[in-house]
Amino acid sequence: MSGSQTPNEVAGEAVPSSQKSSWASFLKSIASFSGDLSSLTAPPFILSPISLTEFPAYWCERPGLFAAIADAKTEQDRSIAVLKWFISTLKGQYTSRNEKLGSEKKPLNPVLGELFYGHWPDQDGRGQTNLVVEQVSHHPPITAYYICNPTKGLALQGHSAQKTSFSSGSIVVKQIGHAILTVDLDDGNTEQFLITLPRLRIDGLWYGSPYIELTETSYIQSSSGWLSSIEYKGKGYFSGRSHSYKALLTPPGSSNPAKKYEGLWHEVSKDLDTDEVFTDVTSPKEEVTVGPVDVMHDFESRKLWKHVARGIREGDYEAASREKSKIENEQRQRRRDEQTAGTPWQQWHFEHVESDPVYERLVKLFNGAPPTEDTYVYQHNHSATPSIKP
């Protein structure tokens, strides 16, 4: 297959003048809504032309840093490499749409069974990195993913969901789920890393220019005992800088950090002990490579949402809304047909497991919460082409 990149997104006014009243109505509905905001329908002009199913690609838009984890020779160096790679993923996940489109946009809410496949080709001996994503639940929306670099012996398996609420003029998003990174070592053993997800807050709503700030603390716990704790700070009313973080790396059985890092996760951060640059994500990222849309399965994100995305990019919100409603109505009918036939939807690539034993074992090491969490296990069947058509 020939590769294709993410289509260019045009920057524009956050809220077009013609849509001001619609935006005001949307804000009123948010402020008065009780429960999970993900069920609310956002006006088309605030939608991103990208489905949430594509988001796991942000984990590897700097594939060289991902591959470098396998090259680290000690437990401490691997934990440093994992932390460096993780911090490098945050810009793409949480600021790229703001930079490209003039403000944060709401991703398209995936349909059940939606798929996204991609890869980053081998360059300079780093090995090829492959990506498989499936929308494994619609209510609530849950995205499962598997990323691997067989040459380097790296595999990342995870899932994510969101619970959203409104508080003090901001949308607060609790990210649910986790990721497990497995590293095959030269001695035949493996090392595993539990990666928890940061919480986030969407600010700037009243100005019509939403943007994301990460909040609280997330963790990366190695099976070797090394722990990275990452504290996120945003811009306050009187002080602070947007997208700030501070990370502490502590050795097994100790509360005294061996390494400290600080800076801006969307730009540059430093090693506080040496003052050397730790992460620098100001250079261009490497977009995931996918196949041509015309040969994709109908459930693949870029084919499924093609007409909706075109309407959003071209500012034809009426067409985008019409195409989006068409897809949603087809999915509602599919669910009704399944219920009538007594044949529930079957996942293609992932199997649900009520409790993840790796999560349970690693979360205990830093007394994290919750003590148990479910997971979706990849079945290593990417070559099995889905046969069901929307």
Q: How far is the first residue's CA from the last residue's CA?
A: 23 Å
Q: Helical content, roughly?
A: 10-25%
**Residues in β-strands, percent:** 25-35%
Biggest β-sheet, characterized? 14 strands, antiparallel
Question: Which CATH-level-2 architecture of one domain?
Answer: Orthogonal Bundle
CATH class call of one domain: Mainly Alpha
Multimeric state:
single chain
* Spatial extent as radius of gyration: 21 Å
In DSSP terms (H or I, runs of 4 or more residues), the helix count works out at 8
Query: CATH topology of one domain, what is it called?
Result: Helix Hairpins
Provide the residue-averaged pLDDT: 87
Reading the helices and strands in chain order gives: HEHHHEEEEEEEEEEEEEEEHHHEHE
Low-confidence stretches: 1-13
Q: Could you say which overall geometry the principal axes of the C-alpha atoms support?
A: globular
Q: How is this structure best described in words?
A:
This protein is an alpha+beta fold and 390 residues long. Helix content is 23%, strand content 31%. The protein has 8 helices and 18 strands. It has helices at 20-32, 63-68, 75-94, 96-101, 301-304, 306-313, 317-341, 357-365; strands at residues 47-51, 106-108, 115-120, 129-137, 142-149, 154-167, 170-184, 190-196, 199-203, 211-215, 217-222, 227-233, 244-250, 259-264, 268-271, 277-280, 350-353, 375-378. Strands 3, 4, 5, 6, 7, 8, 9, 10, 11, 12, 13, 14, 15 and 16 form a 14-stranded antiparallel β-sheet that branches. A two-stranded parallel ribbon has the order 1-2. Strands 17-18 form a two-stranded antiparallel ribbon. Helix 6 packs antiparallel against helix 7. The longest helix is centred in the last third of the chain and has 25 residues, at 317-341. It is globular and about 55 Å long.
